[in-house]
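Let's practice the habit of predicting before peeking. Look at the sequence and jot down your guess about where helices and strands might fall. Then scroll down.
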Amino acid sequence: MIAKRASHRTRIGKRNQVTIPAALLRELGVVPGDLVEVSLDAQCNIAIAKALDPFERLAELRAEFKRDHPGAPPAPSSDDELEGVIREARRVHGERASADDARIMRESREPNG
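Done guessing? Here is the structure:
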């Protein structure tokens, strides 16, 4: 987060457009054509941040996951591979659920004693 350095005044135009001072744009690292995210906090302060490209964000998340889970298998690289991973997870989960159900049924039949 950039420390508060200076306050700039700008006027809202007829079509609700706001001109952001060039100095602030430079600090944000944005240029004409970039997307920005505009939000309002609880104190009604407007915050502007450079919007992340969703693919860049996905790459960042993958890198974070690899860093935090070094032994994890690589992410699926195709839809078919992903569907296979999902099928396998459902199969394993189903086997575990069936085993849990059987254990619960056995325990419910045993006398408390």
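How did you do? The helical segments are 22-28, 54-68, 79-109.
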